[in-house]
Predict the structure.
Amino acid sequence: MIKLTNIRKAYNQGRDNEFWALNGIDLNIEPRRVTALCGPSGSGKSTLLTIVGCLARPTSGRVHLKERDLSGLPERFLTDVRRSTFGFIFQQFNLIKGLTARDNVMLPAYPLGGDWRALHARAEGLLDTLRLGHRLSSRVEWLSGGEQQRVAIARALINDPEVVIADEPTANLDTALSREFLTILENLKQQGKTILLTSHDPLVIESSVVDTVVTLRDGRLVEGK
């Protein structure tokens, strides 16, 4: 579904502090499977996520989504691809304080337009599925860490994305909540979602939910299994 060819990414290119975060990544991300990127801090995992999710462009190399080359698309087209194809779960959740759980979930859908009532119902349905129906009108800062993560997951799913991208999704969770996240991951996989995540957590990496583990070090692919 997603093919990366010789992906390289530089920061501060041409300056004294030039840094190459990625150094020639070739990788195929299979559809309807869970792929986990692991490796030490600074290995390039999060940078690779941002490139796959069209949040950043590679310095060189090609990104193909279903045979479509995304690398040279103008930003407005790339934005459309990002909104319609990807759902993002960030490490710090990035929820908007002062807004309710329902309002946070609805935010990514506003630029797409559509029927407001249908959107409202979809947000409520997602939160109810994630056992947060009783928290619809609660401000997100009043929620527990596990509840905030479930709001972030619902927000990632509001546009019914084909691909869900999660950056260190269990980094701020205890073991019980991490296991709960893996259950949610299994359900998304059964729905046919393609999932790409980064993690240092052995509980995630060694989980039966994960189909493929890809290890990076110093911006290079070490192994895939």
